[in-house]
Amino acid sequence: ADAGIPATICASACQALSGLVGGGATSGSWTTAGDGIFDNVNILNATYCPGTNDISGGSVTLTLTTNDPVGPCPAVSNNIVISFDPVAIANAGVDSVICAGSTYTLSGSVSGSASSGSWTTSGDGTFNNANLLNATYTPGPNDILMGSVTLTLTTNDPVGPCLAVSATMTLTINAPATVNAGAAGSVCADSVYTLSGTIGGTATSATWSTAGNGTFGNANA
To answer: What is the pTM of this model?
Structure first.
């Protein structure tokens, strides 16, 4: 029995095995010392997918055992060790909302086999330093016009079989509220004055106040 050569794979992957049997043996079957699963334990080129205990332990021993041949020779076994590299993990932070004209300080993080990360944008804004996990993003004109932008954090490509990974967050950009109280006016002292205020941007309502002691018909109109 030959279980194959040791291998190192990414913890998120499965391993295709390449066992061999010979001599008086005509078949073989696989067993594991861990908690992963085989697609079919009775085929020599079975695929093994690691379990959580396999991954946390860093490796697992798989055993290929031949059938018991006819005659005096017993079944034999051979082992192979599969080792696991931790996957890279990226976290771009939670989705957030800012007012147009403001900047946003990101709160990205990387872990697993990743040691660094860099930011990219779907829009036209800029980072003060795209290689900082807590970079500051300044939205561009198109970002503000569209009302949101997607920011992506991508890890470095770790040494070993695991690949770089990415995560995204959405930054919503609200237009600032605007207000116009209207042009200055004058009235006779015994008259009332009809105001002509306007609001815009993200404002949906407004209220009037006075520096004097007069009254409004409806301060919310």
So the answer is: 0.79
